[in-house]
Amino acid sequence: MREFVDEIANQFFARIECDGSSFDEKNLVLELRSVLPAYSEVIINPKVEKRIVIMVTKEYHCLGDALIRNYFNTLNANVCCVIGNYDTLRELTKKYEVPFYHVSHENKTKLVFEEELKTIINEYEPDYIVLAKFMRILSPEFVSHYEGKLINIHHSFLPAFIGASPYRKAFERGVKLIGATAHYVTNDLDEGPIIVQQTIPVNHTFTVSDMVISGKEIEKSVLNKAMQLVFQDRVFRSGNKTIIFE
Amino acid sequence: MREFVDEIANQFFARIECDGSSFDEKNLVLELRSVLPAYSEVIINPKVEKRIVIMVTKEYHCLGDALIRNYFNTLNANVCCVIGNYDTLRELTKKYEVPFYHVSHENKTKLVFEEELKTIINEYEPDYIVLAKFMRILSPEFVSHYEGKLINIHHSFLPAFIGASPYRKAFERGVKLIGATAHYVTNDLDEGPIIVQQTIPVNHTFTVSDMVISGKEIEKSVLNKAMQLVFQDRVFRSGNKTIIFE
Amino acid sequence: MREFVDEIANQFFARIECDGSSFDEKNLVLELRSVLPAYSEVIINPKVEKRIVIMVTKEYHCLGDALIRNYFNTLNANVCCVIGNYDTLRELTKKYEVPFYHVSHENKTKLVFEEELKTIINEYEPDYIVLAKFMRILSPEFVSHYEGKLINIHHSFLPAFIGASPYRKAFERGVKLIGATAHYVTNDLDEGPIIVQQTIPVNHTFTVSDMVISGKEIEKSVLNKAMQLVFQDRVFRSGNKTIIFE
Amino acid sequence: MREFVDEIANQFFARIECDGSSFDEKNLVLELRSVLPAYSEVIINPKVEKRIVIMVTKEYHCLGDALIRNYFNTLNANVCCVIGNYDTLRELTKKYEVPFYHVSHENKTKLVFEEELKTIINEYEPDYIVLAKFMRILSPEFVSHYEGKLINIHHSFLPAFIGASPYRKAFERGVKLIGATAHYVTNDLDEGPIIVQQTIPVNHTFTVSDMVISGKEIEKSVLNKAMQLVFQDRVFRSGNKTIIFE
């Protein structure tokens, strides 16, 4: 059992993990409701395996890691399909017998592009949509539509280097560490609730391209960690922050 | 021996550590000069123990650590004096028989304040001036005057949370790590060449004040590491970056 | 609130932190006793500031850090006195107006040596005795006498390099990281319940002496972290392990 | 350029990376030979892409990561084939069109088993043989035969928990961190020269199985890092240690 009182939001969070067979779910809900305030949210017995859609652009490292885990059933989720705005990662995805959809963003409005994405996504009714290095900015409408379901990996230790080309900016600033951030997507670009962050050291010998290579490792690790936490129902949102019962 | 070619600045850096007694310093300089381009800078046999002045405000953790190391001769430097814009750390400093000067910034112009600082500093002819949680912004004139000699510890993993109250900002952003940055001071606030950076994990249970407490540990560690590197002549500046031959 | 079920020891642990003024301690104990099994241990409202005795040999880094924190009231403990089996750290200790006792282990039996230690320790009735680089092995009698009160810092990432000269052994083995371990002392040398462990990277350029210098930093950090946890009543022992409600 | 003087082995190591087209390899060797002692070893212009054979048992995580990198040409090596003493990882390997050989160790002597391995390995003339969670102990004859070419990933921060079941041992000891070690294989079990080591924190809530899961992440990361370093010719052996010019 883990509890947390968010004194600023004036909210109470608790997560209880039970074990055993003689467990009457309905009575438990009734009993909890009888002691908790009317406005409380009670989530009982969530499904063990989430359904997810992964969206990508051209980089393989996060997708590859997720596909292998999915194949060996260690992702705590079922990858329903992969959508790419380029066709680059089709072959990798097909190796694991996961459907791949190429939805180009070119020669169409963002509205049309996102309608095409939504048609595919909705067909699979996913619990979460994971942006595994999906390099297009999504519209407020799209983000609102999937409120709370969108998880992104950003290639910097936010709030440093918000926006495009964070490794180039990191190189130019001469930082001695680089990092990655997994966060829920909101309509403030790169400003959503942070789930996981990590950094690794770099030094003066690193070119931008060396930073990109090192960064990929930490992006992969951070996104995987965030997926594990979210899919095990350990992450709660409180305003623009996350409570994580690890 | 360590070398580095900065291809962007088009500069070559080398650091050679020699051992032994039959070592003719003058001949070595002559020989090096004869093969190196005329514009090269050659630094030979720097003095082992630097002279430093430490400037503080009210927080004790960085100063305390430096004073103990100074007392046991493990700082690679000699702390000539401590200057505080408050009198708070006088007692701590006096325990180690190091002169302490209280130079208040109150009821005077920045110009006057800094002239008072300079009078004291110049008396000691320090190699470096270490801002160990000195919480006043120095004027461009002051910074230029001590160009390349000013080392600061900033309480965030720059460029995140530039300016005041970084821990409050970090708390409000809901980051999952906090950090500290030691850097040379330039006239762009918190934008000088970075020497050392580290981060440590935090979580949702951390209040601003918990972050401050955890942050102090890493500030202390980062500033100490930076001082070790600088005082052992391992840090070279190239534009707004540092080359560190560790 | 934090809870943990140790399924191997078949034990349940809980720690509850309350806030507020209208808090009747006696009733709370009675109510808890009425619902808990008879064999349960209930610790209520422990005193906020522990009393500690620090034992040292010649190395200053852990002691210096603790004395400064003690002086600025950030140790969550009150350092009653320091005992050294050498006189080396007397001057440092005296700076902070803390009593220092030199109890040499030379020219006497371990029994006599430890009786002298006990006489001094008992006078102060400490809650904990912190071995801050105390380099003598204590007898089973001594350890039993202060069962659960002795905290030690060991200069390796246990169980690697048990016993003497861990840095030399680490150097000879060519490890790429070194570490430190804070643990409760039991009668199995370096085998007591571990409280905190950390490692830091080293490389082929490190001599034994460089490892010692780097190691001191992590020893200081690990011992301090362990003291914070223990003095805030966050550490529970379960067999030869610790449950830590951080 | 990187240099290192191993004062104990009384040896000098240097690694120079050159760039440019007008580069006469033969003259360079001649010139170097003319100034270096006769017993020096000079390695010039090693081939960029190594040939490797990967040996596995049942665990997929290290192999999967290497196969994906191999597929996207970011391994700095070419995976010639995979040999498993179980058939478990055949399907994964075949997805990437890499030959997979199942060589069971059952119902035969170690001598016969290893002759079968050698027959396959030798066919591919690999530069390195990577034991990516290969859980059989190889004979001194086998190890000698591939002297300096065998890289292993061990699932503990050696020298802690040498031998079998390191995670169970770590759990029983109650350590607060677990780790992984990549090393060259020698005939002293788990005692070969260490290339890369990392640790990650664990706590009292980790079961053995949780440690195994967390450990896999770090095993994957450590083995990958070691392969990058070795395949880029950055690792030199000096006795039972490694010099790494990173």
Automatic annotation (TrEMBL), chains A, B, C, D:
Q: Does the keyword Hydrolase apply?
A: yes
Q: Which Gene3D superfamilies does the entry link to?
A: Formyl transferase, N-terminal domain
> Which UniProt keywords are listed?
Hydrolase, One-carbon metabolism
Secretion signal: which residues?
Answer: none
Could you name the domain of life of the organism this protein comes from?
Bacteria
Q: Which InterPro entries match?
A: Formyl_transf_N (IPR002376), Formyl_transf_N_sf (IPR036477), PurU (IPR004810)
Biological-process GO terms, alphabetical: 'de novo' IMP biosynthetic process; one-carbon metabolic process
What EC number(s) would the UniProt record show? 3.5.1.10
Q: Provide any one GO MF term from the record.
A: formyltetrahydrofolate deformylase activity
A single Pfam family it belongs to is Formyl_trans_N
- Indicate the segments forming the Formyl transferase N-terminal domain, all copies: 50-226
PANTHER family, from UniProt? FORMYLTETRAHYDROFOLATE DEFORMYLASE, FORMYLTETRAHYDROFOLATE DEFORMYLASE 2, MITOCHONDRIAL
Q: Write the protein's name.
A: Formyltetrahydrofolate deformylase
Species in which this protein is naturally found: Arcticibacter svalbardensis MN12-7
